[in-house]
Write a structure and sequence with these properties.
Blueprint (H helix, E strand, L loop, with lengths): L1 H5 L3 H25 L4 H8 L2 H11 L6 H18 L6 H24 L5 H23 L9 H4 L2 H25 L5 H8 L2 H13 L5 H24 L1
Length: 239
């Protein structure tokens, strides 16, 4: 992303810095939570951002339609059926919910700012800010330990491949596509579309790991898809 970041104007660096800090906080909070709770529980708690977006928008003066509220609630019910299981951990649950809140704030701000930037510049500056701040955080967290000195010994090919995927696809690629899409999609609708993430996760788990969806999870996946279609209905009707 560096070639795009170098060409980015000052405003993209300022806005990218704000968004980068928010996204980094969301990632770190979710990662901390995953050290103590299952991925299913984390997915359910993270999905609360679907409801947080219209709620935050309401606080800021927006007036979401009743259909958006109903679709958001339906999406959360669907993700709950897909993801819910036991294994609560107070601090990890709280951190994951804070991560969901940070992501909801990011979705709202991005919907307002994306239209005034080239998506490549906005995504690139976010990635550079996140990498820089993450690097500083890593150095400060390793003070008094040998974690940095032993890092090369722990960097086998699987770890390296995982980092490449998470950096190129799940972070840089995701932020770029998000910056493009949210130039044309409202924050409420974007949050509902992001609620399909557990559905995609279930599909890939079935294709790659041979995991099958139980009846309850299948019903939950169907509810998420229905919620996304519901969110599209008012726009299509006006069109």
């Amino acid at each position: 992303m560096l070639p795009f970041a170098v060409r980015a104007p000052k405003q993209a660096w300022r806005d990218g810095g704000v968004l980068g800090v928010i996204v980094l906080a969301s990632y770190v909070a979710q990662a901390y939570g995953l050290e103590h709770i299952s991925s299913n529980r984390s997915a359910f708690l993270t999905s609360l951002n679907v409801l947080m977006v219209p709620m935050l928008g309401f606080v800021l003066g927006a007036r979401p339609s009743w259909l958006v509220w109903a679709a958001a609630a339906l999406a959360c019910v669907g993700i709950g059926l897909m993801s819910w299981e036991g294994g609560a951990h107070w601090w990890a649950d709280a951190a994951t919910i804070l991560g969901a809140l940070a992501y909801a704030i990011d979705v709202i701000i991005l919907s307002k700012w994306a239209v005034r930037h080239n998506p490549k510049h906005l995504a690139a500056t976010q990635v550079v800010w996140m990498a820089g701040l993450g690097g500083v955080w890593m150095v400060l967290a390793s003070v008094g330990t040998d974690s940095l000195a032993t890092l090369p010994d722990r960097m086998d090919w699987q770890v390296f491949a995982g980092l490449v995927y998470l950096g190129v696809i799940a972070t840089a690629g995701m932020l770029f596509l998000q910056a493009i899409a949210q130039r044309h999609v409202t924050a409420d609708k974007a949050a509902l579309v992001y609620a399909t993430e557990p559905v995609f996760a279930a599909v890939f788990a079935w294709l790659w790991l041979g995991e099958a969806l139980a009846l309850q999870a299948s019903i939950g996946a169907a509810l998420v898809v229905i919620a996304v279609v519901m969110s599209e209905y008012p726009t299509r009707k006006r069109a």
